[in-house]
Write a structure and sequence with these properties.
By secondary structure, this protein is α+β, with helices and mostly antiparallel strands. The chain has a single domain (about 5-115), classed as K homology (KH) domain (GMP Synthetase, Chain A, domain 3). About 55% of the residues lie in helices and about 20% in strands. It has 4 helices and 3 strands; from the N terminus they run αββααβα. The protein has helices spanning about 5-20, 55-70, 70-80, 95-115, and strands at about 30-40, 45-50, 90-95. A 3-stranded mixed beta sheet has the order 1-2-3. Helix 1 packs across helix 3. The longest helix is centred in the N-terminal third of the chain and has 20 residues, at about 5-20. The chain is globular, with a radius of gyration of 17 Å. About 20% of the residues are buried.
Length: about 120
């Protein structure tokens, strides 16, 4: 991966986090955290990974809200980053945070039983 691609990924992640916090007013998008961005080498598309606090319904609603706002977010990123091509955004739920918490609870329970 080139340094430019990495830099664009980081800039998109920062800009998206800022937009979700300050400009997006969709109630479906509650406690969404952008956990990562992966951009193709040609910078034509970007996979945005996000996590959500809540149940399956909250996650599905957040996914719908993000997909609905993709055009707006892409336009805002284009204005902010001044790229020749703005990557097409696709949103993917990142469940690694919850999986890590689940594993941590299991390990904690094993330590308690051992004592």
């Amino acid at each position: 991966m080139s340094r430019r691609t990495e830099r664009v990924e980081a800039l998109i992640q920062i800009e998206l986090a800022e937009l979700l916090l300050k400009k997006l007013k969709d109630p479906r998008i509650g406690f969404v955290t952008v956990t990562g961005v992966g951009v193709t080498p040609d910078l034509k598309s970007a996979r945005v990974y996000f996590s959500v606090l809540g149940d399956a319904k909250a996650k599905a609603e957040a996914q719908d809200g993000l997909e609905h706002a993709a055009g707006f977010l892409q336009h805002q990123i284009a204005d902010a980053l001044k790229l020749r091509f703005t990557p097409k955004l696709t949103f993917h739920l990142d469940e690694s945070v919850e999986e890590g918490l689940r594993i941590d609870r299991i390990i904690g329970n094993l330590h308690q039983k051992k004592e």
